[in-house]
Design goal:
about 170 residues, 9 helices
Length: about 170
């Protein structure tokens, strides 16, 4: 029997492995299609001078979001060091993408004063477990939904995250 690496990519067996499968650049069955390049190779000096994969966003999704904060601005707003903000990104408690101008940025709507919007982490986890890539999750959070009303990120900021999470869970079915 061939080892898993020799078989090539196949459909993942669990929600967590589906998220890893999607982040690796493979197509997850049932996940939304996207015409956006998923990752860009970026030389990132703070990561010991290594190339890392960073989600790259297109101009349309960039305009949907509106206001953005760079990582240093995000760190200042949250009162944290930039390394702690990077840890939040690695833990997927916050989401940053590379904008068309090349800067790694966080949507301003993800911050509520000096903290991350309450409930964002859970919704991001649900979306990634459904097989969404970073750019697709960002688009979904900023796309208006008549039944909410408004966008999912507005509903999360208004403490109506339960309804947003129900919709995110429905995407997995």
């Amino acid at each position: 029997m061939p080892r898993p690496a020799e078989r090539g990519p196949s459909a993942p067996s669990s929600a967590a492995s589906a998220a890893r499968f999607a982040r690796a650049g493979h197509r997850v069955p049932g996940a939304p299609e996207s015409d956006v390049p998923v990752v860009a190779r970026v030389w990132w000096r703070p990561r010991c001078g290594k190339f890392v994969d960073v989600a790259q966003i297109d101009a349309l999704a960039d305009s949907m979001v509106g206001e953005w904060f760079t990582l240093p601005e995000t760190a200042d707003r949250l009162g944290l060091s930039i390394s702690r903000v990077r840890q939040l990104l690695r833990d997927r408690k916050l989401l940053a993408v590379q904008r068309p101008d090349g800067q790694l940025s966080v949507p301003a709507a993800f911050l509520d004063g000096n903290q991350v919007v309450r409930g964002l982490h859970g919704t991001l986890t649900l979306l990634f477990d459904c097989g969404f890539a970073e750019v697709d999750a960002l688009r979904w959070l900023f796309t208006a939904d008549e039944s909410l009303p408004g966008t999912p990120i507005q509903a999360i900021a208004e403490h109506r995250g339960t309804e947003v999470n129900r919709r995110a869970q429905a995407l997995a079915i």
